[in-house]
Specification:
The chain is mainly β and 127 residues long. It has one domain: Lipocalin, CATH 2.40.128. It is 13% helix and 57% strand. The longest helix is centred in the N-terminal third of the chain and has 13 residues.
């Protein structure tokens, strides 16, 4: 009985599923930007734009040393990042909301400005 219990425990630990990965593990790797949405708001003006970025080769590449390599709008950059939990990601100390993070999909939201004049950005990535 004891041997059977040990075998079951060993088997369950050895067969850890991908969906058991932590947010810090799931974020790692190169994510291709699929779409992004910008919403700029100021008193009397609202502009919203959705861009299909699937052919632009834009990416976010999260490394295990907490460095983020990006290519976006023709600019390559390196930043620091920290995955706080499943829904909060810091990039250069700016707080970003994570709405989706799976093996193959990642969605990020960022808002900057003040209560009357602000910009909102939604980024949808795939692997």
């Amino acid at each position: 009985m004891f041997i059977t219990a040990c075998f079951v425990l060993l088997f369950s630990v050895a067969c850890k599923k991908n969906n058991d990965k932590s947010p810090q593990e799931l974020i790692l790797g190169k994510w291709k930007l699929d779409t992004y949405i910008t919403h700029d708001h100021s008193p009397g003006s609202d502009t919203r734009d959705t861009t299909d970025a699937s052919s632009y080769n834009y990416y976010f590449d999260f490394r295990s040393d907490e460095k983020l390599y990006t290519y976006f709008l023709g600019i390559k950059d390196t930043s620091g990042y920290k995955m706080i939990n499943a829904s909060i990601l810091l990039i250069n100390k700016d707080t970003n909301d994570v709405s989706t993070l799976t093996q193959n999909q990642f969605s990020l939201y960022y808002k900057s400005g003040n209560p009357t004049t602000y910009s909102e950005n939604w980024y949808n990535f795939i692997k």
